[in-house]
Amino acid sequence: MAEDDRQLVLRCREMQEQAYQDLMRRYEGYIYRLCHRFTGNREDALDLTQETFIRVFQGLDTYNLNRPFKPWLRQVAVNISVNFLQRRSSSPLFLDQPVADSNITLGDTVASREDPAQEIEWQETGRFLQEAINRLPQAYRLLIVLRHQEGMSYQEIAEETGVPLGTVKTHLFRARAALRKGLSTYYAWEG
Amino acid sequence: MECHQENLQIYLDGEMDAQSRKTLEVHLGRCRSCRQEIARLQLLWLELGQTNEMQLPAELPYLRQQIINQAMRSRQDKQNFELGYWDAQKLAWQPAIRGASYFPGVGLLSTVSRATGRQIPKLMTGTMALARRFVFPSRDQKGGNQ
């Protein structure tokens, strides 16, 4: 039976290199994919993965062993990613003020509603949506990932990102409304 | 309940309280437009919940080893830097004990005690023992032959 996370952390505290190896092998893929979903970029995802594990290993002595390891690891990754995205953004990442829907576009992958005869490049829905998500503002993308791929509740997202609950909801609604609008045009849904 | 996309989103997220959920479900039974809309949102939810396993970069194992080396080095440095408790005590008390030893006559206390037959208070014998051990090591301790 594989060692549980708690045992691995204890062995890491005793400076057993194999424990570090096992812990990282267990979660490096998960963290890399998570960071890649946040940033949409391979190099940034690698940097954030490195920073996450460095921070985690530095915090091993104060980590509460009674707390599940994976959510703590994810929280470190989210904090680092939010700080990273904030540093790169010229304006606050999560705005409390309403964002005009016209600012959220899905780019040229979607046919114009005004010209239904225009040909579009048909692709599988998943791929279409992934491209659409990549075009969302980064704050929206981060929330979409936390809600739909990490399965977090509104409250959990608010706590983990430090964003007010109302802002989390508003941003999620707007992001999904934009994605839904894209799907509507793509699939030529009436109404 | 009015037709409101946000309500449908909250419902699909499972974040609606029981009463509101019931009200919405009654509304869905009466409103074709909302039923149509929730079906479309469900498709979106289904797709958003898919996690395609993206390929991991080839340099990840190398990165792993770098991180581990750095973490273990930091930990070792931290351990080396931390003094043992008694080492810290030695350092902390040295100035005070050395200072006390400069008081006139301190060195003669044992001689006086033997001459008068009176015992030196324990606090003073303790201090003198510490001074001999840490501040003024004897010739024997220094490795002298005598």
Question: Quick gist of this model?
Answer:
The complex is a heterodimer of chains A (191) and B (146). Chain A has helices at residues 5-13, 17-39, 42-58, 69-88, 125-134, 138-149, 154-161, 165-186. With 191 residues, chain A is an all-alpha fold.
Q: What percent of residues of chain B are in strands?
A: under 5%
Binned, the helix content of chain B reads over 70%
Helix segment tally of chain B: 8
The number of E-state strands of chain A comes to 0
Instruction: Kindly report how far apart the N and C termini of chain A lie.
Output: 55 Å
Topology:
The complex is a heterodimer of chains A (191) and B (146).
Chain A: H1 5-13, H2 17-39, H3 42-58, H4 69-88, H5 125-134, H6 138-149, H7 154-161, H8 165-186
Chain B: H1 5-12, H2 18-30, H3 32-48, H4 60-81, H5 85-101, H6 109-116, H7 122-135, H8 139-142
Helix pairs in contact in B: 1-3, 5-7
Describe this structure in words.
The complex is a heterodimer of chains A (191) and B (146). With 191 residues, chain A is an all-alpha fold. Chain A is 63% helix and 0% strand. Chain A has eight helices and no strands. Chain A has helices at residues 5-13, 17-39, 42-58, 69-88, 125-134, 138-149, 154-161, 165-186. In chain A, helix 1 packs across helix 2, helix 2 crosses helix 3 and helix 7 packs across helix 8. Chain A is elongated. Chain A starts with a helix and ends in a 5-residue tail after the last helix. In chain A, 33% of the residues are buried. The model of chain A is unreliable at 97-114 (pLDDT under 50). Chain B has 146 residues and is mostly helical. Helices cover 71% and strands 0% of the residues of chain B. The model of chain B is unreliable at 140-146 (pLDDT under 50).
